[in-house]
Design a protein that fits this description.
By secondary structure, this protein is of the alpha/beta class. The chain has a single domain, classed as Metallo-beta-lactamase, Chain A, CATH 3.60.15. It has seven helices and 13 strands. It has helices spanning 39-45, 63-66, 69-79, 94-105, 172-177, 200-206, 222-226; strands spanning 2-7, 21-26, 29-33, 55-57, 86-90, 118-122, 127-131, 134-140, 150-156, 159-163, 182-186, 215-218, 241-243. Strands 6-5-4-3-2-1-13 form a seven-stranded mixed β-sheet. Strands 7-8-9-10-11-12 form a six-stranded mixed β-sheet.
Length: 244
């Protein structure tokens, strides 16, 4: 897998970072994980054509993780003249949530009358489902319940990319990280403790308990950015590229 971190910041774009969005390529498929409100701008700055994207995986329904979908869809429709179908996978109700977001953003736009079809896949807790050549595993995590938060494992042949989503501490992180080639783990704070987000100190304590080859911290808020000099674990940055 080839991964480009398009957005690594929090909801407030702390440090001038874009909101969560990762571009992932495998030999026969190209997809996004999350699509925060700033994602289309991040894609344009990296010269990424929306027509290259086969699918989008949404971890939960917060604007900094799926709020960029209306802009992506409109760009694909009007600028890209897209013809082939786009797959969007997300928690239960993903089709309704995306359609409502699109209509709220652009009341005259009908998702059923774009130049391309949008196909939706719902994943539920502790489920393994197919998305093109990928196998997705989903796990409940601890965030705002109404956003239906999930951690995700993306499997392609013998490679596994794990993503915590937004979450406070939960033992499900062990399952999400298990045997993964890379765990992208949210780390909103350095030491502040909140039930809905992780902090660097807790992740450092637990690092050896995560059975994964590599961990990169993401969703960095101001407190984390202010303490980067003290961080020994690998942290993401906008535009960063890794291969696993």
């Amino acid at each position: 897998m080839w991964i480009q971190f398009l957005g690594t910041g929090d909801a407030f774009c702390s440090g001038g970072r874009f909101q969560t969005c990762f571009l992932v390529k495998v030999p026969d498929y190209c997809f996004l994980i999350d699509c925060g409100a700033t994602s289309l701008l991040a894609m344009k700055q990296s010269n990424i054509d929306s027509n290259l994207i086969d699918g989008i995986i949404i971890s939960h329904f917060h604007g900094d993780h799926f709020g960029g979908l209306p802009y992506f869809l409109l760009d694909a429709n009007f600028s890209g003249k897209r013809k082939r179908a786009l797959t969007i996978a997300g928690p239960p109700g993903v089709a309704v949530r995306v359609e409502e977001l699109l209509v709220t953003s652009y009341p005259t736009v009908d998702i059923d009358h774009l130049t391309f079809a949008v196909e939706f896949i719902e994943f539920r807790e502790n489920q393994n489902i197919a998305m093109g050549p990928l196998q997705l595993e989903s796990f409940p995590v601890v965030h705002v319940p109404a956003s239906l938060p999930h951690g995700i494992r993306v499997n392609h042949h013998n490679t596994t990319l794990a993503f915590s989503g937004d979450t406070g501490w939960t033992d499900n992180l062990y399952k999400i990280a298990d045997s993964a080639d890379l765990l992208i783990c949210e780390c909103n704070f350095f030491s502040t403790e909140l039930p809905s987000h992780l902090n660097y100190r807790k992740i450092t304590v637990e690092r050896d308990n995560f059975n994964c080859k590599r961990i990169i911290l993401n969703h960095l808020g101001k407190e984390m950015l202010d303490n980067m000099a003290a961080c020994k674990l690998e942290c993401s940055s906008d535009g960063m590229i890794v291969e696993i």
